[in-house]
Amino acid sequence: MEQNNQKGKKRKVLKRLLGYVTKHYKLQLAVVLVSIVISAFVGVIGTQFIKYLIDDFIVPLLGQQNPDFGPLKNIILIMAGIYLAGIVCNYLYNRLMINISQGVLNDIRTQMFNHMQKLPIRYFDSRTHGDIMSTYTNDVDTLREMLSQSIPMVFSASVTMIAVLIAMLSTNLYLTLVVLAMVILMVLVSRYLGGNSSRFFVKQQEDIGKVNGYIEEMMEGQKVVKVFNYEEESKKRFDTINDQLCDSMTRANMYANILMPCIMNIGNLGYVLVAVIGGILSVNGILTIGSIAAFLQYVKAFTNPLGQVSQQMNFIVMAMAGAERIFDLIDEEEEVDEGYVTLVNAKIEDGKVVETKERTGIWAWKHPHKDGRTTYTRLRGQVEFENVQFGYEENKRILHDITLAAKEGQKISFVGATGAGKTTITNLINRFYDIQEGKIRYDRINIQKIKKADLRRSLGMVLQDTSLFTGTIKDNIRYGKLDATDEEVYAAAKLSNADQFIQHLAHGYDTVITGNGEGLSQGQRQLLSIARAALNNPPVLILDEATSSIDTRTEKIVQEGMDKLMKGRTVFVIAHRLSTIKNSDLIMVLDHGRIIERGNHEELIAKKGTYYGLYTGAIEID
């Protein structure tokens, strides 16, 4: 039953894959098919030509005193023309298949990448980046091999074998039965060896993804590996998964490599049997010499394609395994967004908020109602949590009854041990994850009613781990607002204190950075991240341990930049250094997903509870 399901799944994958070909390349595919058929029949005609050449043109010339080679020359010229047509068709279909295969791969990669942008954060949290990258590289490359070579070769071989079989039957039934007996033996051997090879080729693709994923992890964490002397242990772990890949590749290629010799030797055995039996038939006057010569060529023309098909089946199976992984990514459920409240430019007329196309610096939530009304609520940055329960896994809650209210312009800070749920709360504000119970309101609107893109446009984030991209300093800051002018970029950099170090770079704002900010210090990267958020000019700002990994001197510069950025905004701060949150309007102390204390610095110190212990050092924050 399971085997039938697997076959059905592979048929669907193949049908879906071929759908990419027929969608945009129907005309080219039609030319390819016609060219393959012509090329295949030219080969069969050429083999048939041997019979007529020997029996009708060469044998009659033997023993003649003054042989006339004119007819022989004419028939050779005719065949040369036919072979030339076959060469042209062969070149044409190979050239077109390159265009088709590369076009299909381009379409698939584009669809994969576009779809990947719509996937939820949960997808990337549950998979290694190296494994995802392997889908774009190794798995896509297997499709190139199949589309450009394997499928055309299988179709060409099939057409050739049908044409040759017809020619053999028209020549001699007994010799044809001998060849078919050899073919049955070939098929049995091919099914056994090819089946085993296919199974290990599928495992090979999975193991390649695991190896790539592990290498990517080790590359990203190389500093950690060095500082903890983890080199030997990392090599042991790599050896384990690398050995698994070696084993699957060895077994796959072992069966694949012995398949072709076995098929060819069975074909050679058939060739010998045909030669012996054909000789006997010729001696008894049943077959002519030309017929035997042609039939021997038929044997090669029939068995060689069968061997080629058997060999290509391994590539097809490997490509199908890759295609399954590709379609698994493409079929991954997109981030659900049922929001209908959008963010629009607004202005105030007669004390009311109204929508406008002009950029006024005022934003409002456009809220359509079921009764046809549309109301506008000015964006202010008020965030409320009401009895929120959340777990990354459905049956495992990590936040319990979280209730809080952040008023416009307030600074709310979260403290607690690692794993207490601080970062999770900020992820919920962005709707990177959706809550299971309770409500989160933004300007008194349930955030599940707000379109995610508009929600996130109103929020700014400065994370501990900054993400910079290959490009100029100016381009990296402009990520916060793609249509920002240069003057707006400069103003954001000055506000965040990033302008100070940018001016000292060789090319200033046009300095190109690579490798996630290679050549810049952690503090400089953080300042660029702050500048990016400043350019976005959000009413709500999330600072997730933004200064925990930089030195005290740099922290002062970064903190000054953040203080400027926080002015007049609703701010959520996660910090290990409690000195940075003393001036917060409200401090939440979390423990195992629950708020156990709340109040400002003075109030919490007076309580002499957990916060007091953390601040005085009596309790370790981690």
How does this model look, in words?
- The chain has helices at residues 2-24, 26-58, 70-116, 121-125, 129-171, 173-220, 222-227, 231-283, 289-330, 422-429, 452-457, 473-477, 486-495, 499-502, 522-536, 552-566, 601-607, 610-616; strands at 342-349, 352-355, 362-368, 374-378, 383-390, 399-406, 411-416, 437-442, 445-446, 459-463, 471-472, 512-513, 540-544, 570-574, 586-591, 594-599.
- The protein is α/β, with parallel strands linked by helices and 622 residues long.
- It has three domains: 13-330, ABC transporter type 1, transmembrane domain (ABC transporter transmembrane region fold); 342-378, no CATH class; 383-616, Rossmann fold, CATH 3.40.50.300.
- The strands form four sheets. Strands 10-13-14-7-15-16 form a six-stranded mixed sheet.
- Strand 15 (586-591) and strand 16 (594-599) form a beta hairpin.
- Helix 2 runs parallel beside helix 5 (129-171) and helix 8 (231-283) runs antiparallel to helix 9 (289-330).
